[in-house]
Amino acid sequence: MVRxxxxxxxxxxxxxxxxxxxxxxxxxxxxxxxxxxxxxLAEHMAMRLPQAGxxxxxxxxxxxxxxxxxGASWAGAKVMTATSGPGFSLMMENYGLAIMTExxxxxVNVQRGxxxxxxxxxxxxxxxxxxxxxxxxxxEAIAVSPNSPQECFDLTIRAxxxxxxxxxxxxxxxxxxxxxxxxxxxxxxxxxIKIVNRxxxxxxxxxxxxxxxxxxxxxxxxxxxxxxxxxxxxxxxxDERGYxxxxxxxxxxxxxxxxxxxxxxEDEIIDLEFDEYKDDADIYVISYGISSRCSRRAVKLARDExxxxxxxxxxxxxPFPEKYIRNLAKKAKAFVVxxxxxxxxxxEVERCAGAKPVYFSGLMGGRVHYPEEILEKIxxxxxx
Length: 384
Description:
Elements (H helix, E strand, L loop, with lengths): L7 E6 H12 L1 E6 L6 H13 L3 E4 L3 H13 L3 E6 L1 H6 L1 H9 L4 E9 L5 E5 L4 H6 L8 E3 L4 H18 L2 E7 H4 L2 E6 L60 H16 L2 H4 L2 E3 L8 E5 L1 H16 L4 E6 L1 E3 L3 H7 L5 E6 L5 H8 L5 E5 L8 H11 L3
Parallel strand pairs: 2-3, 2-4, 4-5, 5-8, 7-8, 11-12, 11-14, 14-15
Antiparallel strand pairs: 1-9, 5-6, 7-13, 10-12
């Protein structure tokens, strides 16, 4: 008998680990379209999700995939899709729809070199700003960034928990190297996995339920289609009933709440990892995903040279840890940012670093850093 959670120690790549993380989180619906380098995730879900009592649907394209996922979420399921580069671009309009309608869902983006078709089989980290600003209009985004197959499992569960907690889409910003990397993945007993479920509307309130009337926590209880609630769902600016309201006042009230329901809880959402040198450093390397693994080695090489460097890894890319970087800048001599793009998180660090210099180790995609390349920037920051 196949269990819904494959407890035990496994050897799997990041794509498969993310699929298993989704199942462990309670995902019951996957709609997707194959695209390198995320196809292994869809292939594994096609086999495993029906075994766990869920539904897998291969759609005709990425637009249909995200729309089907949004619909299934309103039918009460925990939902996910996965894609890469061009497919993520196609999803952006309905990414905004999920934000506006407050639809919990998870989008895994296994990043590759771009733009356009780019390098389908090789690594990139160029979709970071797209995950934050890819749809139009003002909003807040949540995105997590694993750097190992184990974290692909763990952070996919966390992505589901965040999506359900805050009624919003959450992006798992994986990259090709982590997605195709095979390592040990330990899956705990199902009873030890923390699961968060969405706050549901009280069935006793069917005749009085307002789908967008938020509780004190700024998050409205969610009704499930088919349970007798009278619900109007639209991507238009709407009032608490869900009815379109084309006024500046309604726009201000709604969008402020959508932003604040994430901003107010930033400390709960943001997740950083520090090395053992964090309290004895004056140069801080900021990195995420596969680049953080190269950065960790570069920091050790720098310490061997007597340079007081330390790594700050962004396990949560969005919201960006602005307050932490600003506080760090009070004692830091300089920052180094390592990522596989032309400088996306770089700009966030520069914005928060004040007068402190920020050095950049960037690649255009296709390969990961050599630790020595990041070390050169650390040495430059140290004046060597």
